[in-house]
Write a structure and sequence with these properties.
This protein has two domains: 22-142, Rossmann fold (3-Layer(aba) Sandwich); 152-252, Winged helix-like DNA-binding domain superfamily/Winged helix DNA-binding domain (Arc Repressor Mutant, subunit A, Orthogonal Bundle), CATH 1.10.10. It has helices spanning 30-42, 53-63, 79-88, 104-114, 127-142, 178-189, 197-205, 213-227, and strands spanning 22-26, 46-50, 67-71, 97-101, 119-122, 152-155, 158-161, 166-169, 172-174, 195-196, 237-240, 244-247. 38% of the residues lie in helices and 19% in strands. Bound molecules: calcium ion (CA). Calcium ion binds at residues 28-29, 71, 73-74.
Length: 254
Amino acid sequence: MALAQTKPPSSNSRPGDSGRKLILVVEDEADIRELLRFNLEQEGFAVIGAEDGEQALEAVQSQRPALVILDLMLPGIPGLEVCRRIRSQAATEHLPIVILTAKAAEADRIVGLEMGADDYLTKPFSPRELIARIRAVMRRSYGPETERPSEIYQKGRLRIDFDNYEVVLDGRKIDLSLREFELLRFFVRSPNRVFDRLQILDLVWGQDTHVEPRTVDVHIRRLRKRIERDDAHPELILTVRGVGYKFNDRALAP
Ligand code: CA
């Protein structure tokens, strides 16, 4: 599998790095380990890997992951024993564990009773299922705020921290009202696509509001004042005459 060779640059991220939650992947098969790593990193988690039970227990102590994905069939100390030892230590007795196994029936038993794992994934699993399970366990263990890893948009001159409502453009922090921020978020997520005012109203303000389409123009004018180099000649939020607006992310090049 090609993914085994692809190590994204953020592989060695630690939990301190921009507050990303650290997940320990315990799996002796390199292909599956890298597949998990790739998908979890795509979702904004930091990931470390362990090839066997001994490495896993060492990493649990030294790295303090927020969650462990644990294969049952491991060389050396078996996955079940790893699970038991994690549960038997006061410091890690509540550490969320998601079991990875080819045998769903076996996992049911482990999750349900004896070993107290939080959930399981049956091989082969889909990335979507993996992420959904991990998020659900995170939510149960750490509360709804920690469910989603912090989300950052970075392109050229613009950086947006969606969780902290922070916008930095050309190295300077930009203050936006909540609505301006939502409007900018909407645009950067759908770049180079034309939207008319009614669509923008629906997508940013929501369908239940009684706001005039003109309001969109007012807010776009304000947003331009904050983010355009020259708001009389906008480069980022372009007017498409007779239709609406589009976000030109090419103008973010430094
Ligand atoms: Ca295995």
